[in-house]
Write a structure and sequence with these properties.
By secondary structure, the protein is an alpha/beta fold.
Length: about 650
């Protein structure tokens, strides 16, 4: 396993470079990431290039045996570029160029920007193509889907629609544009969602396609840079760093033609007071591993308190620097790169803390990081080892877009039930892959498919086949609501999944902030919130009933036998223990091994290679925990990770 840091030599006096590189070597740093925001230093004026400082830095780290990840610096073009080529600046929804001054202002499609971006990427990769210290390239930085509203991007949006639908008549039919006289009669009438309206006011079918286009367009931008890098550096791995943002790219498509996934991982430094909140970043990490079903990198890892556009957060408590990084390894990271080596003394991120603070004196966090480097070195034999999972949770980019376009009820959001189900599996010590609903389900004995809001008959058929062959399938409310155009399906919910779950929905009530009890046959009672499907069991067996409101006594959850397997349907959003109860039964029915009695906040995962199996046991709480595991008593301090080899 490798530990690295993000480093910005262009921010510091050259006299610090040798000092920093030597201390990194002494501390155990294996890799540094460089240059993702350094375009103005590499090309201070158009056509005038200065790579000498970067040559010197790379040689310095190479001499210390520290590997380098180089970035294409295209997230932050120099101000001269925007001054000379103003159309390179993104256009906002109001039709005006956005104000520059921070970062990420570039339009992915502007010809001048692309010409200059291509040139700097080509020059960089050509210069360092034979440098053995450079082990990977990162494309741009934290890319988002393309929500630029300039004429060029509008033209690309129209071309995207023409390729998909061929004619305006087909678009009008797909979008049901006869509502509100929205029918197109000219391609010039087809525009992105300009104006200040909430997106929920726009036609949902149109908005879903715009989100798909915005994602695809960003992916084309990634591919453009990938092709240049691949041409010059055919043997070097290529990635880009992603995160959970408002304008999400479809992760699975984004990384489909890159070599590995990279994620920017910032777990909370202040644990929530509400015990029902799922705060563990194990969910995010399992999703990142599930994108390509292979190990990944963390390209930015929490190193200190965060503060920039928001007030500063709490500093990481003792154990967090070590524990959160080891948690990433436990869930499939092979390399964890910390943001950042030094806390910036200037710029907007001067309070987004790194490992060495403004004092320039190594402190508690730094020494904890030093111990982490030793631990990671001792785990080097696990690099490339696998996380084997018999359980999958399905993630749908379309459903996430659709939830954001049309919020369902107060406080309800797409990822919540995915996290609740993931937490239930985690509570039972079960490895989980979070995969696209378009992926193969082969090899999974339990498949959770929460909130497949945008329904796909092909997915429904594959889930049914998995259940027929012995899998346990778990569906929830808000499955099967919309077709692939984001129009409501005129059929009883859960529409295409009705045969699988053996039930239909009589009616539903978006209860929002209200709550209602639901009671299981064994007498256990749980709180339900946000949403209540009143279920009509057909071939299914009711397993829980509402114990309040006008639908008291009606079915709240059911299970259906499907040849060798079982399908569960949860009609509400419940508390954690509700999901744990159903997940446990699903695991038992499918013959998946699990561990009972794991205390809240303890996470147990395994990695395997050849004849080696390693258990990662993590206390993701701020309290000491003692418990029995495999016949032994374990005591873990807050955020402590214990690693046991089989």
């Amino acid at each position: 396993m490798k530990i690295g840091v993000d480093y910005y030599p262009e921010h510091w006096d050259k006299a610090l470079w040798e000092e920093d590189a030597s201390l990194m070597k002494k501390t155990g740093v294996s890799v540094v990431r460089l240059a993702e925001f350094a375009w103005s230093r590499l090309e201070p004026r158009e056509g005038e290039f200065d790579f000498s400082w970067l040559d010197e830095v790379i040689e310095l780290f190479s001499s210390k045996g520290i590997e380098v990840v180089l970035c294409t610096p295209t997230n932050c073009p120099p101000l001269w570029l925007y001054e000379k080529y103003p159309n390179a600046v993104q256009t906002g929804r109001d039709g005006r160029k956005i104000a520059i001054g921070i970062r990420g202002h570039r339009c992915y499609n502007d010809p001048d920007f692309l010409r200059l971006a291509d040139r700097i990427v080509d020059l960089l990769t050509s210069r360092y193509k034979d440098n053995k210290a450079v082990v990977a390239w990162q494309i741009d930085n934290e890319l988002e889907a393309n929500f630029c509203f300039c004429e060029t991007c509008t033209g690309r949006y129209r071309e995207w629609l023409k390729e998909k639908y061929q004619t305006l008549e087909n678009i009008n039919k797909a979008y049901k544009n006869n509502v509100w006289s929205g029918e197109y009669s000219s391609w010039n009438q087809v525009n992105p969602p300009f104006g200040s309206y909430n997106y929920a006011w726009f036609n949902p079918a149109y908005m879903l396609d715009f989100n798909r286009f915005a994602s695809d367009d960003a992916i084309e931008y990634i591919k453009r840079q990938r092709d240049i890098i691949r041409k010059n550096c055919p043997d070097v791995k290529i990635t880009t760093n992603t995160w959970f943002c408002e304008k999400m790219i479809d992760f699975y498509r984004e990384f489909s033609e890159l070599d590995f996934v990279s994620y920017d991982n910032y777990p909370t430094t202040k644990l929530p007071e509400n015990p029902e909140e799922c705060y563990s970043h194990a969910f995010h990490l399992d999703l990142m591993r599930g994108i390509k079903k292979q190990n990944f990198w963390v390209m930015e890892q929490l190193s200190g308190g965060m503060g920039s556009w928001a007030p500063m957060s709490r500093m990481p408590s003792p154990g967090m620097i070590n524990g959160y990084s080891l948690q990433a390894f436990a869930h499939g990271a092979d390399t964890v790169v910390h943001f950042r080596w030094r806390t910036a003394v200037g710029g907007a991120e001067m309070h987004w803390h790194g490992l060495i603070d403004h004092s320039n004196v190594p402190s508690r966090r730094f020494f904890e990081f030093k111990e982490l480097c030793k631990t990671a070195k001792a785990l080097e034999d696990l690099r490339g080892s696998e996380i084997k999972s018999e359980v999958a949770i399905l993630y749908s980019a379309d459903s996430e877009y659709a939830f954001k376009i049309q919020p369902q009820t107060d406080t309800m959001y797409y990822l919540e039930q995915l996290k609740l189900l993931h937490n239930a599996f985690l509570k039972l010590g079960v490895n989980v892959d979070i995969v696209s609903e378009k992926d193969s389900f082969e090899g999974y004995k339990v498949i959770a498919a929460p909130e497949l809001y945008v329904a796909d008959e092909f997915v429904a058929k594959r889930l049914y086949a998995a259940a027929e062959n012995g899998a346990s399938v778990i569906l929830t409310n808000r499955c099967g609501v919309k077709d692939n155009h984001n129009n409501c399906i005129m059929s009883p919910l859960p529409t295409v999944f009705r045969t699988l779950v053996g039930a239909s929905v009589e009616e539903y009530d978006p209860i929002g902030y209200d709550s209602v009890d639901i009671r299981f046959a064994d007498g256990e009672v749980f709180k339900a919130k946000q949403w209540c499907d009143i279920i009509n069991p057909e071939t299914a067996e009711p397993i829980a009933f509402y114990d309040g409101d006008y639908f008291k006594g009606k079915c709240a959850a059911a299970k259906n036998n499907v040849k060798k397997g079982t399908a569960f349907y949860i009609g509400t959003v419940g508390e954690k223990k509700l999901y744990q109860k159903i997940v446990k039964e699903a695991l038992e029915l499918s013959g998946v091994d699990f561990i009972e009695g794991i205390p809240d906040g303890i996470e147990i995962t395994t990695r395997e290679s050849q004849n080696k199996k390693v258990w990662f046991i993590f206390n993701n709480t701020d309290k000491e925990k003692s418990f029995e595991l495999f016949g032994k008593t374990l005591t873990l301090k807050p955020f402590e990770m214990k690693i046991q080899r089989a």
